[in-house]
Amino acid sequence: xxxxxxxxxxxxxxxxxxxxxxxxxxxxxxxxxxxxxxxxxxxxxxxxxxxxxxxxxxxxxxxxxxxxxxxxxxxxxxxxxxxxxxxxxxxxxxxxxxxxxxxxxxxxxxxxxxxxxxxxxxxxxxxxxxxxxxxxxxxxxxxxxxxxxxxxxxxxxxxxxxxxxxxxxxxxxxxxxxxxxxxxxxxxxxxxxxxxxxxx
Length: 200
Fold this sequence. Notes:
This protein is α+β, with helices and mostly antiparallel strands.
């Protein structure tokens, strides 16, 4: 994925010049995705970063990202994975998604704002991702970790996202959203009516 952030130029005494993305306070590390049966927020705060590292045998979050990013290339502005070059394990992909669902904590399903807790996150992973092609989990985990590591620019409609009426910018996994959404079509996942609250 192309990094569109403005570059900060650093010149060292030996003449070496390094350009790095300039930090912008509008950068965000959460991500809204059109997956499963709605639009879900994914976010990995520090506490869940550490839990992900523990779940992945103590490997550092950057190492996990490096593993998941290996074998992925940008093609016409979209991230494309070539599985024969990949190094990600299904376990690290599923744990990334499960924990990011917990960290995100919310979703919009059928126009309702729904709370996502640990139980619901596991249900979503079991119902929609377990029966789906591995590539579906790989794609989603990559998007989550790429956003965590590099950040993304806040969109204008995200000002005041604490409001329930805020517009949620969402992204679609090209070529994978159907696989993720329909893989669990024959499975049963009970919805807790108390967990949803109507958006104003």
